[in-house]
Structures are given as structure tokens and as C-alpha cells.
Write a structure and sequence with these properties.
888 residues; alpha/beta; Dna Ligase, domain 1; D-amino Acid Aminotransferase, Chain A, domain 1; Glucose Oxidase, domain 1; 4 domains; eight-stranded parallel beta barrel; 35 helices; 47% helix; elongated; binds phosphoenolpyruvate; binds magnesium ion
């Protein structure tokens, strides 16, 4: 077993391929070293040590300490230094690095190796006492906080007290002598809080830091982040120990972060920020406002702070060249951290950059056009769920904007909501069904839950790479950061802007595209689906095998779905066509009638509406397939609930409200989801199916005339358990088809098929396929009946199952491919055995879930059907599934 991997001086024991073992950071540092880029030498302790650590009561494998000693000596040889040496001390940083990047989640310690003796050596070498003592106090503060658990506020208080006493305003006012005093105060604080002196032995310091990094894998922030991003706890983190380079050794030193393309828009322009005379954490923390890296960006931002291109042209040009090398090497946009120590450039990190969905699209399309990646790769790179972000509204360009301030356009999209000042308030507002904007000075990893609950995030401090900006982009939420003209007083619950005062609960709007902050609510506009979006979707369409249809019953939904690229309707829930206030009375009348005659009277009112609905749908779909499902009303959704509703229907039916109440009571069910619904209704009351079949056929004839395209309706029977049920309903449909043919003198083409949404239907699919020309998997009901968990009641306890790890995910959201999936597979196999060309689709909610779509591809379904807004997601997910199955 090898536990430690070294890198530096143009070579490394590891490589980018070893992410699982070395973590993303360690693997990429090794790769950069192998590419001959300037990387401070160091070593990575593997994720296997983390696993070992937790499997053995937080202890280490015995060989580890020898391997770490040897690695430290190797770093010493490369730097000409010795750990703990009083003349040329080696100082190191200690950082965590998981397989997947977890920004801001794990702890870092810098300047490790400093103590009362080495601080003097650092001062001599740098020729700068002040710098050395500032570094030492930073180290004690970070180490005290991260490793020893001393609250960082306590350190800040000591510093603030000292500044007050001396009349200083800025940290830069402090002299070397001041920092010495602060260091003494810090050491006294540590001794008081921990009962032990601050560790002077660098080796003890190092093991303390390593333990803290491994320990932080199980801190609450990390656990939350993993849960939100589906990262297994078993992966563990690596620890990277690396020789320190200093960006705060005076005016020829700097530190910065950069993206090789704009992470917000995807534009192919180097994009980044830096600070002169600063350490890495200063940039991310957003305490000082950073400077632009390129002149072009500085000019665009109208900043009067000079760019890196101007102040350190040599380092800038070397950096630009490295950006090109890394982008070509990794064939992706890179997120880079660098430090310049006295004019010499050092690369500290390279990884694939997080980006908005808009940027991801643009980068993928442009890289494919540049020939850097293939079109298949471009399609494979976009997370289908992220397309949701592009479907976000933006502010209507014609709208009046009552602008009260502006900040950086940190994450696109616009959002309105009530002002909240804490993450807990954000959750509370969301709970009561309202929308909110989280307004903070800056956010920290403790705010993740509030950021999730909010529609958007507004901060008054911090840059484009601040915590708020990075996390909001990842979540796809609009964010405006660094809106410095706004003042937040969270304690008093007040936001002041332009002399106006806003309180919690007041509505504001943020525009993450421009950075504007606007009072009140503003009209929004739906997004354009052209440009890069259309291009990539076009590529996806060439790749995918499965068709994508939509679940729609209203003309508006059907039109939206076609605009999103739907290739037909996979499920028209006819009962939903009657939720409308003007119509539901007729449906209730029909359901509540206690004679066939009464029902026919109500149905006669419904027929023309229904026919007109179908004509419209056929016309909108213009020759594309349309699957219409016969009525499937879970009765509890349709029975009248209020006295007013009862009276209205009693009048319409011509009975007393009392008599009607009796009828409602007689129809009430204990388990409506398993009750008198689906085809059971058509079997009890055949006249319902007769009316619907007639409406469908008459509409098909009418629409074929207006569109000039043939209309072949697919009539779908719901909730079938036995072939006999399907036969019974199919007979009705066939009979009406014959009647309409006779009346019209026109031949009518149509198909009859069934939902497969009960386990019995899945198992008996072979005989059901004798009657059914198509199957559509109703995985909502199939999940309900396979698990025996009520769709309507699951919400109250399924979350607990997921939290306790008893279920990997909610099976109503993402298909349970093992259980429910096996039934789907069985039904598909048995159906095809009877009828080789049987058409197979899915129309449960899972038809719009990327993981479930992947499963549908493996079963070989012909199409998936989902709600209109998920159609683009399904098109892309279907393409990715096809790519995957081609590879397999
Ligand atoms: C299903 O059960 O999956 C389905 C699509 O039908 P509904 O949701 O209307 O019951
Ligand atoms: Mg169903």
C-alpha cells in the first residue's frame, strides 16, 4: 500500500487520472507538474488514508508517518529547505481535496511550520519583519480556528482591540511590532481556550492539520453539501501538503483566481481577479475588492484599479500561455488559482471550472466548433437538469425599473421576492409558500439551506468568485454580489439604499444578468430558445434514438411543448380538461348522476367541448401522434367539497341538495387512488367512453380537413389490470368508430392501447398485447402500486427514508429501476413477444427525469413523454443515453 504521492520539479508520482485516490486538487497538481508547469512542490496523502482513518477510530496506518517524513524531505530537497529549520525553514499549506470539488466546504491551513524561531528566519529571508509576523499571526488564527477549535471571532476581537488602542483603522496600519503584540495575544488566547500552549513543533502542527482535514470530511457543512450533490461519504478526502509561496511579500507579489472563459456567459475571454500583496484566502473572502486580470476586462468594468496585464506584464503573459496549455490539455474551461511571489508565477490549482448553464452551452458549442471536442462530447457535457436554468425568466426589457442599487452580475436570471436577512427566515418563507430574496453582507457555507430556499441571493460584499457567486451559479439561482452601495443591518432587519429603507417582507427584484437591484416586483419575460441552445439541441436530436413527446391537454401547454421540441402528445389527461370552473360542474353532474339517462344528459353537454378541445390539440400537433387517455378521475379530486358547489350541481341535475349529498356520501371512498377510477369507470358507465370516443373521432375528421394532415389518434385505456377490461373498453371504441364511419362516410384510422400502471398488467403483458397496439408506462401509479405507497401520502414519510439512507432517492421522482424497473422490463419483453412491433412509451413523471430516461433507453422504449418544460431536458437526456448505450 502506498499512502503518499509526491509532485514538483517537472514530475509527479500521480496524474490527472488518479482523482479517486488523490482527490481533484492533488490529481490536478500532479498533472500540472507532469506538464512542466510551475507548481510549488508537495505531496498528497490519499483518500484511502481517510477511509482507513474512519474505519479505525480516527487513527492512521502505521507506515504513514514514515512516508510523510520522506515526502517532506523530498519537498525540502526541491526547495532547498528543511521543515522546522531555523535558517531555511520549509513552510507548507495543508488543504483538503475530495474527488468532486466541494467549494468552501473543507478547511485549509496556510503558513504551517511557523513558530517563534522560524518566524525570524522568514523575516530575514523576506527582509521584511512586518510580513513575517503578519504571516505568523495569520497561521495562529487559521490553525487555532480550524485545528484547535478556537472561535475565529475571538482572534478578531484581539486584533480589533489592538487597533482601537493604537487608533488604527486598517490592518495595513499595523507595524511589525504591532503584529508581535497581536501574536502574543493570540498565543495567550489559544493557551486559555485549549489549556495548552500553541504547538511550536512543526511536525506536531502538521499532524494536527492533517487530522483536522480528515476530520472536516464529517463536519456538518460537508455532510450537507454531499447530500445536496449526491456525493457518497465513502469517497473520503485527500490531503495535499505543499510548499508555501507568498503572494503577500510586497508590491511585486500577488494572488488571484481566473477562469479561462467567462463562467457566467461562456465568452472565450480570460476572466479573473487578483489582489496585490495578498494571500489566496483574501480574494475568495471578498474582504478587499479585487482587480481585473486583463486590460480589456478592466476597461469593460470601468475600473480605475490597474490590471495584472499592466502591473506585472511578464507574469501575466506567462499566465496567459499556461491558460492556453491547460485548456488544450484538459479540453475544457479551467478554473485556476495562482500566486506571484516577487515576480515569479506559481500555479496552485487547475480544475474544470464551474459555470452557469448558459456558459456551459456556449463553451460546449464553441469548443466543438473550434474542433477542441466532438459534437458528441459537447452533447455529453451538458447536465440535462441544468437546462432548467435557461428556461428561467428574465426581466421584460420594456419594464420600468425602480433601481435602488447595483452589484456584480454573479449568476443569471431574475427573481422577485420578500427580503429576508437570514437563511432560517428564507426557509420559513419558503415553507409558507412565498418567495424570497436572501439579502446578506456575504454568505458562508452555513447559508446553503437558505440559498436553496430563496429565489435569489443579494450580497453587498464580495466579487464574482465569492462564496455567494460560486454557489448560486452552481444552484442555478440568480445572484447579485458585491452591491456595495446597499447597507445591510441584519440585526435591525433593515436594508438601506439610496436613502430609502426596506424591511424584511418588502418585495425586491434582482437581475443576475445586469447586477441591478430593483424595488418591488417587475414583469418578467420567458427565455429565447435559439442560438447555442438550438444548436446543441439539434446535435442532441441527431444522436438520440427515443422520441420525446409531452404530457399536455391545454392548447397553451401543447403549443409550449412544441416550441420546446415535443414530437407529439404522449398523454392527454382528459379529466384535466374539466378542472376549469366553467366545465367542472358538467363533469360533477355526470359523475353524480345515478341513472344512465342522467349521465347521458351531462355527457351531451360535455361532448361538444371535448370535441373542440381535441380538434385544437390535433391542429397544434399537426400530424404528430396524439395519445388521448380515456377519463381517469380519482373521484376525490372531482367530488364537490363546499356547500356552494353542492347547491350548484343540485340545481343543474334537478335534485335537492340533500339527495345529492347522499349520493356524494355513497360515492366517497376510503382509498380513492385504488378505487373507482381508470377503466373501472368506463366499465361501470360505458356511456362515458362512448362520448369520448365519439368526440375523438369527430375531432380527428375535422382536424384532418383543416390541417390537411392525416390524424391517427391513439386512444389509451387507463388502469387496466386484466385483458378482459381492455377488451371491454376496446369494444366500445371500435363500435363508436364503426358508427362514426357510417355517419360520415369516412374511414377512420386509430389505435387502441393501454397504460401499464399496475403490477398485474405488467406481468400479464403478453396477453394484454393481443388487444393493445401500444403500451404507455404509467410509472406514477406503477410506483404507487409496486411499493404499496400512496402517491398522495408519500410526502410525509418518504423524506425520512431518503435521509436515513433507506432509499437512495424518492421513487416518485426518479424511477426505482430495480423494482418498478423490473416490472417495466418484464412488460416490455412480454408485450414484444406477442406483438413484435408494439409501440412502447412512458408517461409517468419519470419521463422527464434524466436518470429514468437513461433506464428507458436500456429497455428500448420508443419514446418518453413529459411535461412541456422538461421536453428540452428529455431531448438531451435521451441523446446522452443513446451515446452511453452506443459505448456499452
Ligand atoms: C401514471 O400513473 O404514471 C400516469 C401517467 O397517470 P396519472 O398520473 O394521471 O395517474
Ligand atoms: Mg396513472
Amino acid at each position: 500500500m502506498k499512502w503518499v504521492y509526491t509532485f514538483g520539479d517537472g514530475r509527479a508520482e500521480g496524474s490527472a487520472a488518479m482523482k479517486e485516490l488523490l482527490g481533484g486538487k492533488g490529481a490536478n497538481l500532479a498533472e500540472m507538474a507532469n506538464l512542466g508547469l510551475p507548481v510549488p512542490p508537495g505531496f498528497t496523502i490519499t483518500t484511502e488514508v481517510c477511509t482507513w482513518f474512519y474505519a479505525h477510530e480516527r487513527t492512521y496506518p502505521v507506515e504513514l508517518s514514515l512516508e510523510v517524513d520522506e515526502a517532506l524531505r523530498s519537498v525540502g530537497r526541491k526547495t532547498g529547505r528543511v521543515f522546522g529549520d531555523a535558517e531555511r525553514p520549509l513552510l507548507v499549506s495543508v488543504r483538503s481535496g475530495a474527488r468532486a470539488s466541494m467549494p468552501g466546504m473543507m478547511d485549509t491551513v496556510l503558513n504551517l511550520g511557523l513558530n517563534d524561531s522560524t518566524v525570524n528566519a522568514l523575516a530575514r529571508e523576506a527582509g521584511d519583519d512586518r510580513f513575517a509576523w503578519d504571516s505568523y499571526r495569520r497561521f495562529i488564527q487559521m490553525y487555532g480556528d480550524v485545528v484547535l477549535g478556537v472561535d475565529h471571532h475571538a482572534f478578531e476581537e484581539i486584533l480589533d482591540d489592538h487597533k482601537d488602542r493604537e487608533g488604527y483603522v486598517l490592518d495595513t496600519d499595523l507595524t511589525a511590532a504591532d503584529w508581535r503584540v497581536v501574536v502574543e495575544g493570540y498565543k495567550a488566547l489559544v493557551a486559555e481556550e485549549t489549556g495548552e500552549a500553541f504547538p511550536q513543533d512543526p511536525t506536531a502542527q502538521l499532524w494536527g492539520a492533517i487530522g483536522a482535514v480528515f476530520g472536516s470530511w464529517m463536519n456538518a457543512r460537508a455532510i450537507t453539501y454531499r447530500r445536496l450533490h449526491d456525493i457518497p461519504a465513502s469517497w473520503g478526502t485527500a490531503v495535499t501538503v505543499q510548499a508555501m509561496v507568498f503572494g503577500n511579500m510586497g508590491e511585486t507579489s500577488a494572488t488571484g483566481v481566473a477562469f479561462t472563459r467567462n463562467p457566467s456567459t461562456g465568452e472565450k475571454l480570460l476572466y479573473g481577479e487578483f489582489l496585490v500583496n495578498a494571500q489566496g484566502e483574501d480574494v475568495v473572502a471578498g474582504i478587499r475588492t479585487p482587480q481585473d486580470i486583463t486590460e480589456a476586462a478592466r476597461i469593460a468594468a470601468r475600473s480605475d484599479r490597474p490590471s495584472l496585464e499592466r502591473v506585472m506584464p511578464d507574469a501575466f503573459h506567462e499566465f496567459v500561455a499556461i491558460c492556453g496549455t491547460l485548456e488544450k490539455h484538459y479540453r475544457d474551461m479551467q478554473d485556476l488559482e495562482f500566486t506571484i511571489e516577487r515576480g515569479k508565477l506559481w500555479m496552485l490549482q487547475a480544475r474544470s471550472g464551474k459555470r452557469t448553464a448558459e456558459a456551459a452551452l456556449r463553451i460546449a458549442v464553441e469548443m466543438a466548433d473550434e474542433g477542441l471536442i466532438t459534437r458528441d462530447e459537447a452533447v455529453g457535457r451538458i447536465d440535462p437538469s441544468s437546462l432548467d436554468q435557461l428556461l428561467h425568466p428574465t426581466i421584460d426589457p420594456g419594464a420600468h425599473r425602480d433601481i435602488i442599487g447595483s452589484g456584480l452580475p454573479a449568476s443569471p436570471g431574475a427573481a422577485s421576492g420578500e427580503i429576508v436577512f437570514t437563511s432560517d427566515e428564507a426557509e420559513a418563507v419558503k415553507q409558507r409558500g412565498a418567495r424570497c430574496i436572501l439579502v446578506r453582507v456575504e454568505t458562508s457555507p452555513e447559508d446553503i439551506h437558505g440559498m436553496h430556499a430563496a429565489e435569489g441571493i443579494l450580497t453587498t460584499r464580495g466579487g464574482m468568485t465569492s462564496h455567494a457567486a460560486v454557489v448560486a451559479r452552481g444552484m442555478g439561482k440568480p445572484c447579485v454580489s458585491g452591491a456595495g452601495s446597499l447597507k445591510v443591518d441584519a440585526g435591525r432587519g433593515v436594508l438601506t439604499a439610496l436613502g430609502r429603507t426596506f424591511r424584511a417582507g418588502d418585495i425586491i427584484t434582482i437581475d443576475g444578468g445586469t447586477g441591478q437591484v430593483i424595488a418591488g416586483e417587475v414583469p418578467m419575460r420567458q427565455p429565447e430558445l435559439s442560438g447555442n441552445f438550438a444548436k446543441l439541441m439539434g446535435w442532441a436530436d441527431e444522436i438520440r434514438r427515443m422520441r420525446v413527446r409531452t404530457n399536455a391537454e391545454t392548447p397553451a401547454d401543447a403549443r409550449a411543448a412544441r416550441a420546446f421540441g415535443a414530437e407529439g402528445i404522449g398523454l392527454c389527461r382528459t379529466e384535466h380538461m374539466f378542472f376549469d370552473a366553467g366545465r367542472i360542474t358538467a363533469v360533477r353532474e355526470m359523475i353524480l348522476a345515478d341513472t344512465s339517462e342522467g349521465r347521458r344528459k351531462a355527457l351531451a353537454k360535455i361532448l361538444p367541448m371535448q370535441r373542440q378541445d381535441f380538434v385544437e390539440l390535433f391542429e397544434i400537433m399537426h400530424g404528430l401522434p396524439v395519445t388521448i387517455r380515456l377519463l381517469d378521475p380519482p373521484l376525490h379530486e372531482f367530488l364537490p367539497k363546499t356547500e356552494g358547489e353542492l347547491d350548484e350541481i343540485a340545481a343543474a341535475v334537478g335534485v335537492t341538495p340533500e339527495k345529492l349529498k347522499d349520493r356524494v356520501n355513497a360515492l366517497a371512498e376510503f382509498n380513492p387512488m385504488l378505487g373507482h377510477r381508470g377503466c373501472r369507470l368506463a366499465i361501470s358507465y360505458p356511456e362515458i367512453a362512448e362520448m369520448q370516443a365519439r368526440a375523438i373521432f369527430e375531432a380527428a375528421i375535422a382536424a384532418a380537413k383543416t390541417t390537411g394532415a392525416p390524424v391517427i389518434p391513439e386512444i389509451m385505456v387507463p388502469l387496466v389490470a386484466t385483458k378482459a377490461e381492455l377488451d371491454y373498453v376496446k369494444d366500445i371504441v371500435d363500435r363508436i368508430a364503426a358508427a362514426v364511419t357510417k355517419e360520415s362516410g369516412l374511414d377512420i384510422a386509430y389505435q387502441v392501447g393501454t397504460m401499464i400502471e399496475l403490477p398485474r398488467a405488467a406481468l400479464r403483458a403478453a396477453e394484454i398485447a393481443e388487444a393493445a397496439e401500444f403500451f404507455s408506462f404509467g410509472t406514477n401509479d406503477l410506483t404507487q402500486t409496486t411499493f404499496g405507497i400512496s402517491r398522495d401520502d408519500a410526502a410525509s414519510f418518504l423524506g425520512t427514508y431518503v435521509n436515513k439512507g433507506l432509499l437512495a432517492h424518492d421513487p416518485f421522482v426518479s424511477l426505482d429501476t430495480e423494482g418498478v424497473g423490473e416490472l417495466v422490463q418484464i412488460a416490455a419483453d412480454r408485450g414484444r413477444r406477442t406483438r413484435a412491433d408494439i409501440k412502447l412509451g412512458i408517461c409517468g413523471e419519470h419521463g422527464g427525469d434524466p436518470a429514468s430516461i437513461g433506464f428507458c433507453e436500456t429497455v428500448g422504449l420508443d419514446y418518453v413523454s413529459c411535461s412541456p418544460f422538461r421536453v428540452p431536458i428529455a431531448r438531451l437526456a435521451a441523446a446522452q443515453s443513446a451515446l452511453k448505450s452506443r459505448k456499452a
